[in-house]
Each structure stands twice: as structure tokens, then as C-alpha cells.
Amino acid sequence: MTNAGIVELGRHADYTRPQPFAGPDHPMRLLTRATAFGDPWTDQDAARVTQVFDDLAPSWSTDHVDPLKAAPLLDAIDRGGVPTSGRWIELGSGTGAGCRALDGRVDEHISFDLSFQMLAHAPDRVPRVQADSSQLPLADDTADVVLMINMLLFPDEVDRILRPGGAVVWINTLGDQTPIHLPPGDVAEALPGDWAGCSAHAGTGFWVVLRRFAAD
């Protein structure tokens, strides 16, 4: 659970500082940190989060899908060295912002979300699976890339499904103003084992790409 080094790249030319939105005491911020660093994820947590996002789903695509918010994902592919071949597993895919940005760019993309209503408003051009990301219906070593955009981090499960040499892509589209937020170093610290990678700001947010660090 150590950070073997994250290289901070220069800001993308389109970077725009986000407006103040969610501070450190935001309830989702507190839940994100607690879940990432070992607090139990309960049935009550899952039910509460499901209800929140089911209620938000009808307007989510119009309110939360725009070029500036897609920019961190596209920059991660461009400068972060994320392969577009292989299988991408997206956790917390919502109404499909990731799907829209990745359309035609990756070989295989499967979306998972806890909220059925979010998935119901997502494009149907990729497989959509309703599932709790703390216990995914996937075999070990399934994903070449695990993508999380404004998503809670379940470190052991991400590590379990990621193939050796695979990449974790973590994106906060409003940077440190994102309600579901962890800075890059904390993502690396929360994941089991030793991780290295790179990070940058783009759009109104940031991305970090991490791979398990293999010591010499």
C-alpha cells in the first residue's frame, strides 16, 4: 500500500479551474475516503447511494456530459499511455459519459453501475451491468483497464479484477471540487501493493493512470 511515484505532467491547454462546489465535509467526500481506506461498505450505504443516483438519473446526462468533463479521459489516453486495446471495465458508469467519450476508441468496454436508473439513461452501444462494485460479478484478472470517473474506490476489488500489467484510470471531472474525490496519491496509497503512474489536469478536472510497480 505504498506510492512508488506519480509523475505530474503539465496541465493540458484546455484546463479550466472548476468553480467551488464540494468541500472536504461533503457527505460523499467522507464516504469516498472511508470506503477507500477500509471502512465497511454496508447494505445501508449501497441503498442510500442507489437512491441518490436513481433520483438524479433523469437529468444527469444533460447536466454532466460536456467536452470539458470528457477532456480528462481523452487526455489520459493521449498522454497517460492507456492502451485502447483489450477490455475496459468502467465502474460507476452512470448515464454513460465515459461511453460517449470512448465511443469508437477502445476495443471492448463494459459499464457497471449500482443504479439501474442511471444505466437506463445510458447509451446501449456497450454492455451495461447493474452491480455493486464492492462485489463484482467478474472473474479475477478480467480487465486490462479499470476506469472510474467520479466513482467510489473499492481497492481490493479493483486489484482483483485487474490483469497483471493492467492500468487503473481514476478521474475527478471537477478536480478537488468533485463530491466523490480522492487525490492521485491517495488512490495509489489505497490500492493493495505498490503503484506508479502519471497524472495531469485537463478540462475542469484531473486524471491519474496507475500500474502496479514491479521492483527490480
Task: Please explain how this structure is put together.
It is globular, with a radius of gyration of 16 Å. The protein contains seven helices and eight strands; from the N terminus they run E-H-H-H-E-H-E-H-E-E-H-E-H-E-E. It has 216 residues and is an alpha/beta fold. The two termini are 18 Å apart. The protein has an eight-stranded mixed β-sheet. The mean pLDDT is 93. Helix content is 33%, strand content 26%.
Name a few traits of the molecule.
33% helix, 216 residues, 8-stranded mixed beta sheet, single chain
State the gist of this model.
With 216 residues, this protein is an alpha/beta fold. The protein has 7 helices and 8 strands, in the order E-H-H-H-E-H-E-H-E-E-H-E-H-E-E.
- What shape does the CA trace take? globular
Q: What is the chains' assembly state?
A: single chain
Mean pLDDT: 93
N-C termini distance: 18 Å
Describe the secondary-structure layout.
Layout: E1 2-8, H1 27-36, H2 43-64, H3 67-80, E2 87-91, H4 97-102, E3 108-113, H5 116-120, E4 128-130, E5 143-149, H6 155-161, E6 162-172, H7 184-190, E7 194-202, E8 205-212
Parallel strand pairs: 1-7, 2-3, 2-5, 3-4, 5-6
Antiparallel strand pairs: 6-8, 7-8
